[in-house]
Amino acid sequence: FPLFLQVTCNCFTISNGEMQDVGVGLYPSMSLLNHSCDPNCVIVFEGYQLLLRSIREIQIGEELTISYIESLMPTNERQKQLMRQYCFECDCLFCQNQEKDAEKLAGEEHAWKEVKDAVNEMKYPKSKEEWKQVLARCQNLLSSDMSHLPDTNIYQLKMLDCAMDACINLECWEEALYYGSRTLGPYRLYYPGNHPLRAVQLMRVGKLQYSQGMFPQALETLKEAYNIMKMTHGTDHSLMQALMEIKEQCEAIMRTQ
């Protein structure tokens, strides 16, 4: 039991190139890093290799911090998760000021609670039919609650992400781009500056724009992703190499037009 608790408190969630969870691992030296809801570093993975990347200028003597949890939660939910899993309360400025809580829960409460319940109930689909069911539910909720919830509401944003994933898996590229484009503003709000999640989302939208022949828009989106990803992933990362490849293809097409 003590070993189980030590693993729970010290393990890192291993993610793939698109920041999707694929497992957990123990990295003893990285477990020394403390938490902040507004950290100066992020963890990214290259396979099972853990990379610690700074996302802003760090002063001499400044402590290196990472976020132990997904920051796209209101302050009280972040505090509950930190206490439940790590047994402490966060007192960073982000929590003290309840930063962006109003935007995260914007809209009518009954509407976002319905969307929140739906998001929590959804399990990762294993077949095309299950993806179709997920997309149908997303479409229904997004259309019925569109007048009540702004896209900055975090549960609406998660629903848009889910709809985008479903469309990509069903190869509905145009509709995937519609949902993905709607996420970019909220991602900019909640992941300002250099953040790997924002870089990956920009890359996904840029690839969709490219697939639809929107080459000028795709190039701008991919450039924005590139500028962030060179900080969050580094130029040698495999995802960065894939981004550079599609960006160069887009530039070549633009030169011939």
From TrEMBL:
Entry EC number(s): 2.1.1.354
Leading EC class: transferase
GO cellular component: nucleus
Membrane-spanning parts: none
UniProt xrefs under PROSITE patterns: SET (PS50280)
InterPro entries in UniProt: H3K4_H4K5_MeTrfase (IPR050869), SET_dom (IPR001214), SET_dom_sf (IPR046341), TPR-like_helical_dom_sf (IPR011990)
SET domain ranges (all copies): 1-69
Example GO molecular function: histone H3K4 trimethyltransferase activity
Keyword S-adenosyl-L-methionine: yes
Protein name: [histone H3]-lysine(4) N-trimethyltransferase
Organism for this UniProt entry: Ardeotis kori
Gene: Smyd3
